[in-house]
From TrEMBL:
InterPro entries attached to this UniProt entry: ArsR-like_HTH (IPR011991), HTH_ArsR_DNA-bd_dom (IPR001845), WH-like_DNA-bd_sf (IPR036388), WH_DNA-bd_sf (IPR036390)
Organism superkingdom: Bacteria
Domain HTH arsR-type: 3-97
Name of the featured protein: Metalloregulator ArsR/SmtB family transcription factor
The organism of origin for this protein: Pseudonocardia ailaonensis
Membrane-spanning ranges: none
Length: 111
């Protein structure tokens, strides 16, 4: 199962990264095209350091990578990790649907 392949620590990092609206917005922007941290920081009503911390959380979850280009750091989205997160959620949905069918079957038997 995909959920088991990821491991608890990786899932924890992914879901922690997704838990914040700013991080989700940053991820969406850098999946579209690489952005510098300076460019990202200009979009939010928070300090440059706060944006760097959000990017660090995304990087620990392997949702983004950073590339130094001169004095700037470009942030790139990692669609492979995003795909793995989607597969993990799909696996949880399959578990849930299987359990729902089991409950439905049990209720039909009692009727």
């Amino acid at each position: 199962m995909v959920v088991e392949q990821l491991g608890d620590e990786e899932l924890d990092r992914l879901f922690h990264a997704f838990a914040d609206a700013t991080r989700r917005d940053i991820l969406g922007r850098v999946l579209d095209e690489p952005r510098s941290i300076s460019e990202l920081a200009g979009r939010y009503a928070m300090s440059f350091a706060a944006v760097q911390k959000h990017v660090a959380v995304l990087e620990r979850a392997a949702l983004v990578t950073k590339e130094r280009r001169g004095r700037e750091q470009l942030v790139h989205g990692n669609p492979d990790t995003l795909r793995r997160a989607s597969e993990a959620l799909d696996a949880y949905e399959r578990i849930w649907r299987r359990r729902a069918r089991t409950i439905e079957d049990l209720l039909k038997e009692e009727s």
